[in-house]
Hints:
The complex is a heterodimer of chains A (463) and B (242).
Chain A lengths: L3 H19 L8 H9 L3 H7 L5 E5 L4 H14 L4 E3 L7 H10 L11 E6 L4 H8 L3 E4 L7 H4 L2 H13 L6 E5 L3 H6 L6 E7 L25 E8 L2 E6 L11 E9 L3 E6 L6 E5 L4 H16 L4 H9 L8 E6 L2 E6 L4 H13 L6 E4 L28 E4 L3 H10 L7 E3 L3 H11 L5 E6 L1 H13 L10
Parallel strand pairs in A: 1-3, 1-4, 2-3, 4-5, 5-6, 6-9, 13-17, 14-15, 14-17, 15-16
Antiparallel strand pairs in A: 7-8, 9-10, 10-11, 12-13
Chain B lengths: L1 E7 L10 H12 L4 E7 L12 E4 L4 H10 L3 H11 L4 E4 L1 H6 L2 E3 L6 E2 L6 E18 L3 E15 L7 E5 L9 E2 L1 E3 L2 E4 L5 H4 L1 H16 L10 H17 L1
Parallel strand pairs in B: 1-2, 1-3, 3-4, 4-12, 5-7
Antiparallel strand pairs in B: 5-6, 7-8, 7-9, 9-10, 11-12
Helix pairs in contact in B: 1-6
Amino acid sequence: xxxxxxxxxxxxxxxxxxxxxxxxxxxxxxxxxxxxxxxxxxxxxxxxxxxxxxxxxxxxxxxxxxxxxxxxxxxxxxxxxxxxxxxxxxxxxxxxxxxxxxxxxxxxxxxxxxxxxxxxxxxxxxxxxxxxxxxxxxxxxxxxxxxxxxxxxxxxxxxxxxxxxxxxxxxxxxxxxxxxxxxxxxxxxxxxxxxxxxxxxxxxxxxxxxxxxxxxxxxxxxxxxxxxxxxxxxxxxxxxxxxxxxxxxxxxxxxxxxxxxxxxxxxxxxxxxxxxxxxxxxxxxxxxxxxxxxxxxxxxxxxxxxxxxxxxxxxxxxxxxxxxxxxxxxxxxxxxxxxxxxxxxxxxxxxxxxxxxxxxxxxxxxxxxxxxxxxxxxxxxxxxxxxxxxxxxxxxxxxxxxxxxxxxxxxxxxxxxxxxxxxxxxxxxxxxxxxxxxxxxxxxxxxxxxxxxxxxxxxxxxx
Amino acid sequence: xxxxxxxxxxxxxxxxxxxxxxxxxxxxxxxxxxxxxxxxxxxxxxxxxxxxxxxxxxxxxxxxxxxxxxxxxxxxxxxxxxxxxxxxxxxxxxxxxxxxxxxxxxxxxxxxxxxxxxxxxxxxxxxxxxxxxxxxxxxxxxxxxxxxxxxxxxxxxxxxxxxxxxxxxxxxxxxxxxxxxxxxxxxxxxxxxxxxxxxxxxxxxxxxxxxxxxxxxxxxxxxxxxxxxxxxxxxxxxxxxx
Lengths: 463, 242
């Protein structure tokens, strides 16, 4: 070994993680990364290079936590030790912290392969430093624009990054996203793709939250032969002939089963793999298809892929069921217009009548500009009879959004501050019944704390 | 009765919840028993000003602003400008606001000419103004929104600002002003979206449209309990975040 600086950095990072947990100050997911990175600036590069099976980077606006968790589960079931930033702390310091924790003091990794969930803005640096064997790109949606500047600049920085790869590296893209198809075209890396080959669930027109209806090759409007979710679909350009790349992993026989589960078949003929997942909504079936395609590309046995997906439980906060005072609460994280749209679409398709509370915060991690609520098709909720409450720092904004979606004011209750709203909402739910809470990211964290105080759920970093 | 709301370049200049403004105009007309139709007018499509009651013009990414600037040169820009001179109501936010002035000058690139309806011009600035805003307007009282722009707008001597910035940076971060008003047209940097949380502006635009089309002077009041809550909440948020 003999890398004194690296050893010191690892030790310091581990100690700060431990002391943060002892102090009860949250999960200690990012600060250890700051500490160890300060002591050795190349710590992430060095540790990543020591992982024998290499690194897999997973990025995308929606679904990166779920997809990387499914992937890690498959790899573990295949008998591999997996280094993974499981807490969802996906900026450089959080990823550094995860590596620091999962190596021995002398710098020997505890696993054979690394699965790195990466924030959109952090992708270029993470790719440069970890030199991944495989980069999985799920989608690129408008998300928290005040943090990132404009969507175009993310797409440009991704493209530059992909162009620096070499042929020994692989990119796996969701080809249903025209932006991803366009920015990966010129990369020297091997490119594979997944997507929906056939799907009965289609949209008539692009939702308001959707972004890229423009051909990035020639600037003309793209024509969709099929549109599945936001701007994801099977598309072509009438002007220059550009079209969705051929699918290496095409999903067919897609079935949704309300808020409970879904299924699909990946590939055709002898290689066709039927996948049942206890995850609701088309957006999750994209995650399932992406994780399965990644695992198959890495050479994992198909029966392991099938079994791991069949038994996978949703990642922290994405969909979670808890019991409180003899009521069933279903918690569904919302973090941007597209994710929110798909949750509402899934609720509307299952014709549910149970009470819903939407909790909107406007802290940094939620997006400080709540304008995005207006890109959400809240009109879906006008179709169902459910009573609707709003809460959180921007409870009023959400209540107004619902009103302008055409929902009668008599069905809208603005409850304000979440701490008091939670009890009032739970009391409003008849005993034995189910209710839904849809919080933004920091609202979810607060909600977990409040539920924890009532003895309801374990804090997420304990799992 | 019917009002037609024309969303200028709604297919490409549609960002930060601009749709909320169009929805607010349509819904507040409908709640008063007035039919509301929303149309969009894109690049290369001719403008018939007699078919429009209220214009909305939103923001866009730079990629989308260039073809729009060329589109308003010549006949279409002249027609639009004349319509506003004649008193057609409009709300323009961010990119649309900039193009109502004489020009927008992006950093290191050619100037993008506007229609010159406002005595105002804009240029790219070194810093991005991001955050909650409260503006005090003589016409509308307090206004709340969220600014997110690096373009700086300067008003000429004949221009009237929409209001004074109480919290936030405003047109250019220097003169304490936000937006511009002329006749029945309002331009500003306020996202949020602006109209749902500031119904006084929405009703001003609807009132102006009804007066022009139907000679109606009075607007039926609506219950704005939720809007008032959201407006007050936004002021509190601006106070603690900036």
